[in-house]
Records
---
Amino acid sequence: MPAIVLIGAQWGDEGKGKATDLLGSRIDYVVKFNGGNNAGHTVVIGEEKYALHLLPSGILSDGVVPVIGNGVVIDVAVLFEELDGLIARGIDVSRLRVSANAHVITSYHRTLDKVTERFLGKRQIGTTGRGIGPTYADKINRVGIRIQDLFDEGILRQKVEGALDQKNQLLVKVYNRRAVTVDEIVEELLGYAERLRPMVGDTALELHRALDEGKTLLFEGGQATMLDVDHGTYPFVTSSSSTSGGAVTGSGIAPNRIDRVIGVIKAYTTRVGAGPFPTELFDEWGDFLTEKGAEFGTTTGRKRRTGWYDAPIARYSARINGVTDFVLTKLDVLTGIERIPVCVAYEVDGERFDEMPVNQTDFHHAKPIYEHFPGWTEDITGVREFSDLPANAQAYVLALEAMSGSRMSAIGVGPGRDAIVVRHDLLGA
């Protein structure tokens, strides 16, 4: 049975939760392998809408084991709040598994995130202020706190003391903030231990055993390819590996266990935060996409920047991730546009680039070269077969497929759980 990696193929907010939900009844485990509560999935089931930030979206599917892997950074208070919200709505969350090796976001990480971003002024990255970056920095600097440390007060206290030796110097002398005491951090974190303990284990071992037993695993990436710390639009990126390679390091499974990589991509493009965005719109069409596509962040509520579909970005994502299938979302948002522009290449100082420029300066100055495709006016939200889509909508999807580096296996035509057209089985048939 397959191990499938599901990633965002643009700058995030592509609709990965919907794609996960599409597979939910055929999946045994859903694993979150990177990020924290700095991004979210929105899943619509019937009349109910669920906004998930830290939890894998598979937690909404009966019988699925949701797993938070070692590559995730966890704000435990947020985890409990999200679990309590689902419990109040009748969702069974008892199957959740949490890696003992995942790192913990503390209050000093959140404080440092916010004050550092303000200190940058015009050079701000556009972080969510939730402590994600500082926690990953501590992980790499080997002064981080892991979930397993919450069950050993002596180890926890030593690690907090080591972390605060430097951080209090920064907070007091550079940022003019109060020092954080070891006791307040230790007391807070120890308070989580009792409830957390039954969820925690060696999730890498559990996942390997599940694969050996023939279970089907879905590895669900947070953020997206263009926000990957190595392969994204650095430095305007997240602090973790959000490409398919991150599924390996962020979960503990071996690379040769992965069978398929599904890239989720919108029929247009959005991003949140600062950084280059060649097809960004500043006119009435940008407003059209924002309003009709409800382009506001699941986690932050921030208005997303909007632009037309960018084929070089799609090809780059297909190549970096080894995408076997694309899920194209929000095709319905384009209904009513007479001529739909698609970026097929860039122009930089008179030179044409058919692929993403490797040089950051070039990409900052890249201007989109567009081809235009005829639009459609028919309501497609009720369509479930590709052949029933308007001819121009079919032609648009096939054109994107031809220039994006992999097949368009499913097409989202509305926000509902069943508002999707399936062309190819995402499990490989």
---
Amino acid sequence: MPAAVLVGAQWGDEGKGKATDLLGGDVDYVVRYQGGNNAGHTVVIGDQKYALHLLPTGILSPEVVPVIGNGVVIDPGVLLSEIDGLAERGISAERLLISSNAHLIMPHHKALDKVTERYLGKAKIGTTGRGIGPAYGDKIARMGVRVQDLLDPGILAKKIEVALTEKNQVLTKVYNRRGIDPAAVLEEYLAYAERLKPHIADTSLVLAKALDEEKFVLLEGGQGTLLDIDHGTYPFVTSSSPTSGGACAGAGIPPNRLTKIIGILKAYTTRVGSGPFPTELTDEMGEWLRQTGGEYGVTTGRNRRCGWFDAVIARYATRINGVTDYFLTKLDVLSGLERIPVCVAYEVDGVRHDEIPMTQTDFHHAKPIYEEFPGWQEDITSAKSFDDLPPNAQAYVRTLEEMSGAPISAIGVGPGRDQTVVVRPLV
């Protein structure tokens, strides 16, 4: 059985939760491999909607083992709140495994995230203020607190003391904010430890054994390709690697275990936060896409910026991730349009670019070059097969497939679990 990676092929919010849930019946393990509670997946089952932030979407499938990998940064309070919220709805998290090597988001990370964004003013990145970036920063600086530290109160106390010796200086003397009490933080996190202890595991070893036993492991990232710390629209990116290359490091499995890389594409484009967005629509059509598509952040509730499909970005995502199959979501949102523009290239200072410009400056000045395609008026939300789609909808899908450079194997025609047209099996 394969190990497959599920990656966002735009700026996140493409509908990865729906794709993961679709595969749930075939999957043995679902692994979240990066990010924190700045990302979110929405899954609709019947008339029930589930918004997941840290928990892998596999938590909703009773036979699946959900895993939070070492590449994730975890706010334990948020995680336990999410677990409790699902328990109230009859969904158990007893199968959940958490990597002992994952890093913890601490109170000083959240405090510094919020205050630095405020001080940046117009130059702000557009973070969620949840401490994700500072937690990853401390991880790289080798000052992080890991999940395994919850199991040793002595080490935990020492790490908190060392971290706050520096961070309190920054908070009080640079930003004129109140310092954080180390004893209070230790008490809070030891309480988290009691509840999280049964879930902590050497998840890399667990996954290696599962793959040796020919179990199917699905790795899911948060955010999307254009938010990757290395390959995204830097500096308006996340602090980790949501691309397929980050999946191996963030889950602790080698690259030769991967056999499928499934990219998630929305039938148009959205992004949240600051940064360049060539096809963004700031007019009535952009608002129509937002309202019709329900484009509001799962985690933050922020309005998503909306625009037409960008084939340049899709080609880039195919190349960077090695996408083998695409899942195209929200095709139904475009129903009723007479014509549908698609960005096929950019124009920068009179020069055509068929690929993303090399420099940040050029990308910021990129103007979309559009081709228009005929729309369709029919309601496609009850379509069960590709042939059920109107001819113009079929042609639109085939056009995006050709421009993206990888086959579109599944199509979302509505938010429900059963509103998916499978063109060819994803696994």
---
Amino acid sequence: MSNSKFNIHNSKFKNIRAYRVGWLLPLVDFLILCPALLVMRRKTTKGVELRFQGDRKRIEQDIRHGAFFMTNHRDICMDAIWLTFLLRIRYFIRPYVGIGNNLFGKWWIEHVVRFMRAFVVIRNGGFRDQVNNATTLSQYIRHLRKHHKSIWLAQREGRAKDGNDLTQPGVLKMLTIDAEDFFESVKELNICPVSISYEYDPCDYLKAREMQLKRDNPKWKKSRKDDLVSMSVGIKGQKGRVVYRLTPSINHDIDAALAKNPELRELSRNEQIQFVCQIIDQHIHAAYEIYPRGTEFDEYIDSRLQLIHLSNKDTDFLRDRLYEMYNYPVLNYEKAVKK
């Protein structure tokens, strides 16, 4: 990677890049953000921990010169905020964070998040616009990684409402859109999957509600107001125990697989993408924190049902969806640890 002076003020990145604020951001972090998150951790959780899946020293070596932290997607805001907090406190790493422009419900939100080292993932526009936006975003991310900057991005667009965390092929397709050699392009990113486990998802009842609305009307779409409500509930709601578990770089898996099966290079691009998606999913699923569920969990589910207000409320369907979003991580974990 190049050691040239880092300069992200390229005009083609103007509409998406994070603002460069120099010494001011660390000052905001340690005088405002970190103290605020310490209070939030005490009021909304029973602890937020950073743990490791496998050899800790190996993982720390993998992230020493920057990494692409890819996580499952549980909460609109807190997924990236807690990871940033944990990495900032322990390793003085502050990743650049990808934020969809669909979340900019107020005019000032974009400026605040770009000041806080977030870059914009533009999700609107026609097909040609989407291709151009994906190309520019991919180039921006590679520019960051070329200069050893760390990055956070969710494994999929939008949260996995049913709890079934699967890497979206479109994410890898975007990241490697200009690549001639797919596997080498992925390795340059240095993807280190991170598994996020909430004991309780404060937005679970909102997700269940959305699933019934989508079932009853396939054309139903969330409004920006809905996103703002989810953001607020996700920030303020009770989460119980929260665990972020770092896993090694997938580069080790790719190298081992290619050494054993060189013919993987002859697969179609879509097949190669699916292969790497499965590696990322395996890392995330095997690293879940599995919380014990007793009879009091049934009472918890009933209490969440009471928060759902719909004119045609389907209680049985909603109850099944709530149980499903907590059961899927357990099922995926059990499958992953058997491999």
---
Amino acid sequence: MELDSPWLLISLLVALPAAFLLGWLASRIDLRQWRRADRQAPKAYFKGLNLLLNEQTDKAIDAFIEAVQHDPETSELHFALGNLFRRRGEFERAVRVHQHLLQRADLSAGDRERAQHALAQDFMKAGLFDRAEAAFRALDGSPFETEARLALLSLAERSRDWAAAVDVALLLEKAGAASFATRIAHYRCEQALEAEQRGDTRSASELLAQALAVAPQAARPLVQRAQQLTRMGEPNAAMAAWSELSQRDPASFVRLASEYADCALAARRTDAATQTLAGLFALQPGIDLLRAMAKLDSAGAMPRLMDLLREQPSLSAAIELLDAPRQTWPESAHQSARDAMARAARPLQRYRCAACGFEAQRHFWQCPGCLGWDSFPQQRMEEL
């Protein structure tokens, strides 16, 4: 053992430097390879970014594919490539990229949720709504939960699944995303229409009551309630609904003034209805109010029509005058009708550039907007 000790010491003195040298060489080789790969991947990446900024999408995609091949573990390049495919409408390729990401075992939880969200968007854009719905539902509890639920709400509206839409809207409200009261009222109104089509008047009434409860200021539940009561042969109850609508939403009431007039005739309450409509007409003259009042009081129709032509010389009012018997026209009727038609025709008596949409009262050989030559047609807009 005494003879072996010097040899053991010599062996250790030789082996340790050799091991250090070999380790150093290996590290240099790995470092050199890493630097080479690092130089290659960013070069392809920046090349793709430059092409993308220059709107050369096809070449940009080729560059990104090259970058992914150099570094297949880089998730950001996969996301960029998938988004590019989706924007170009190549949804199948986008789906493959994002599904490949989801299959990676080393993907972080955040990137996995991000890939799931991107995959759901791919399905949505591709029109694969069943798959999109399943993909969005898989995002419950993730940072993308609110966006996913908004997408699910859109899908429910698209498929006219109003019960599902109500459920999703309530979840969004509970999460504090926003107030969906008006939307929920619309969903209940749609359900009420479906119930009425089935002949289930009772359910329709209950759904309208729910709509009013969730959005007391909404106009549509009152409109549908008044229309429903009219169809059921209850004009007096319908008049109460119309009166409430006139207080809550005068604009909606004015648009449907003709239905209100029909209801007043059925309820034999023409005097009160005429007074209501006349008060609104004095504040804001309009063709809808004029036609409604003509149903209730034909004798006063022409004076009100002339007032409307002075206050609001619209083409609809001029047509109303032209439809009236000529012997009922006052002296100023012809001039009023001409002024109304001239005012309505004025926006159409222009030339419009076919390239940028710039409009002008006279013709230009070179468009002042986009500087294009011969982009103005020879005819005015009303002649096209």
